[in-house]
Every structure is written in C-alpha cells, then in structure tokens.
Amino acid sequence: MTDDKDVLRDVWFGRIPTCFTLYQDEITEREAEPYYLLLPRISYLTLVTDKVKKHFQKVMKQEEVSEIWFEYEGTPLKWHYPIGLLFDLHASNTALPWSITVHFKNFPEKDLLHCHSKDVIEAHFMACIKEADALKHKSQVINEMQKKDHKQLWMGLQNDKFEQFWAINRKLMEYPPEENGFRYIPFRIYQATTERPFIQKLFRPIATGGHLHTLGDLLKDVCPSAVAPEDGEQKTQVMIHGIEPMLETPIQWLSEHMSYPDNFLHISIIPRPTD
Amino acid sequence: VACSMAGEEDFFLEEKRFKQHCEEFVKHSQQIGDGWEWRTSKDLGDGYLSKTHFQVRNRHIPPDPKEKNNDNVEQTLLAHVEESLDDSQVAGVCAAEEVIRYEYHVLYSSSYQVPVLYFRACFLDGRPLTLEEIWRSVHACYQDRLQEGPWETITQQEHPILGQPFFVLHPCRTNEFISAVLAGPQKHNRHTNYIILWLSTVGPVVGLNLPLSYAKVAPEQNSNTD
After folding, report:
1. A81-94 pLDDT, tens digit each
2. Do B44 and A199 touch (CB under 8 A)?
3. What interface predicted TM-score (ipTM) does this complex get?
C-alpha cells in the first residue's frame, strides 16, 4: 500500500503541460512562436512564467509591454489561485496541452489582482498560510515560528524544494496528542458558474461523537448540491489535484496530505463530462 | 490604560453577533444619514455593510511622512483635505484637486472571527488607485506602522463575495487591540457595539471617519445577550 508520504510527493511534483500563445492583437516586430512549459500544479502563474514573459518580450517593442496577464478561453486567470486549481476548475476535461493566452495590455482591473513583483506573491502566499493556521491552531504554530521559518516555506515553494518546504510545513500539520485533528479545516470550494468566487466556512474534522468527518460530510454541510444527485445521476465531479477522492475519505487526512503549500484544500466542483 | 496582550481572554466575535451589531449600526446610520447599508448575498445569505462616498484630495504631494516633528504632523493633517461630497457637489470641484470615489465594505472573517474592512477607490474617470497610491494616502499618523510592514497592513485581495479586487486592511492583529479595549466595558457594561468600536479605530487609517453620534448608540436590551 502506498505510503502516505508518497502522496505528499505526488501532490508537490504534479505538472500540467501548457502551451502559451501571445494574444493576436498584441503588437509584435516579428511573429511570436508559442511557448511550451510544464507548470507546477502547486505554484502560481506569475511565479513560474518568467521565461514565458522573456520569450514574448523578445518580439515586442518595449513600449508595448506592460503588466503580463493570462487568459483561458476569454476568462482572465487569477494568478493568486494555485495553477492546479485553475486547471481543474477551467480545463480539466479538455485535451492537453492546456492553451493559455498571454496579454501585455489592457490589464483587466475589475477581475485580476496586480502582481508587480515577487513580493506580492510572497505576501499572498504567507497570508494564506497564516489564515490556514488561524483555523487549524488558532495561529499558535505559525506565530511560534521564527521569521526564517516563514522564509523557508516561501523559498521552498519558489525554488521547488520539497524537503526544504516540508521541514517546516510538517509542524503546521501536527496537532496536540489529546486531539484527533485540527480545530477547523482550511478549505475553499470553487465553482466556475457562481459569482461568489469560493465557499469557505468553519468545519470541524472531528464530530462531537469523536468520529472523523469525511469529504462527503463537508460537501453535504457546505455545498449540498455537489453531493445530492438530481434525477438520480451525479451531474458534478469533486476534484482536488486532478483527481476525484472518495467521498468517504476523512477530511482530516485530506487536509494533511492533499492541501496545497498554502495549507488550504482547494476543491473544484465541475460539470461531469457526458461522454 | 491597561494593555491586555496575549494571555488575556481573547474577545472573538461570532458571526451571528456580527450581524446583530451591523443591523444596529445600519439603523443608526439611517437615522443620521451616514449612508451605510447592509447587502445580503443571494446564494448563501451572508452579507456585508457597504458605503460609498466621495473625497476631495489635494493634488500636492504630501510632505515626507518620515519628518516627525509636531508642526509637520499638523500641516500634514491639513494638507489631506478630506471633505465628503455628495454627488451634486462633485462636478463643482476645482481642477487642482482630485475627487476619489471610495467604496467601503465590512465583511466577517470566519477564519479570524473578526470583521474585516475592504475598500476600493477610483478617480472619477474610472481609473482605480494603485496600491502605492493607497499606501501614500494612508493618514500620516499611521505611516510609520505601514512602512514597517506594508505587506502586512494594506494589500490588494479578492473580495470573498463579489470576487473583484479590493484593498484590505489586514485582520490578523485586530484581536490584539480590540481585546485591549473591550476587556473593560465587556465586564461591567455589555452594551458595546463591536462594529462601532472597531470601525472607529481602523476606519481613519483609510480615510473613513465615523461621526461622533455613533458613540451614543445604546444597544437594545434583549434576553439573548450573554
């Protein structure tokens, strides 16, 4: 049987083959070739696309270049969502490679956060980790850490260093021996069809009776339409990191093993393909 | 003034209580015409407080915030001309000044169990203010704290209900100063509106001021208050 630790590695090293194409209305001095890249599921678009930016800037005039942004089939892609979440939510049942369009003009102010430097990504990442720990441990674990530990989490992500990251992150996955899990589970549920970007609520991993709550319990509580079959047929898929975990899976286990580096479970509810 | 730090009992605001205090807050706002309203989201029934107003800002670059002596602080306070305008007055503002439309939302954070202040600002032509412009417009008194840790104070974030970019005043330290203030009245006078207390403290950092009459709000006695 696969060791639980193998799951941590599989999650960390997940990749999505992507093809970046320059938006046709961008003004170039010569033709822009598409750029292919394997994107880490657990990272953020603006953190891993320096080469993409350089590639397209080579064929553009300096004055035509302002803040880069990405779009998939007309939808601006939120760089502050992990790449794996964006793919699962928007493109998981389409053919690979994932085709993303690159823009350097007309930044969509109403849809996207700005990302002028890596500091912005770091601040966002650390804010998510802190919020996750507020839920799991009333912020006790994250507050007890030194600044250098916080920095190590960020550097581990930025440099794709699994061991470096988990040396610190394992502390965020512990809980007092007298408890059987975290205080609350950090999770967000996304559906592309709603105006609300995600659903997030307080949810305990352990029921008052002492038994473990499952993924199914979470969905029933927070997003019942995702579990209740209409017409007796399940119209949606519940996806995390590109897979559909069994609804019987304890949510505590999912939180410890399938969270993103920001310590949140990012769950997509998507239409089930009808093939 | 006793400052209660970690170790003292933390005062957390439950979501139901948050809604009650917001209701009370809106009632008073309506009485004095202060423009706040409660907006309920259609899908999940949660909601938030909302207020829009216009501010005139002097176009001169504010004096160097690092200058610390008292005279300069006073000058800085005067230089940040902030008069609230209603729609009819906006058109008459002279060109040397800028009119900025601010929209403030108060949402509840279940993660931190505190209210959170979201806001966005744009010029009349629709151009949104940048994060740098927002940081620069933070009141002079708060510039030191801001510069110590700008990334922990005001950043751009996605509005959790509307999904659009807003600026946010970070909530993770709210509990520190709220507990310090509420430890007193909480014991012998339960009738404190958390929202009024909190907003009157954090609002001015981002140009939002509460008229003094809010201090007189006396919550309704009801058997549910513990």
Report:
1. 999 999 999 999 99
2. yes
3. 0.92
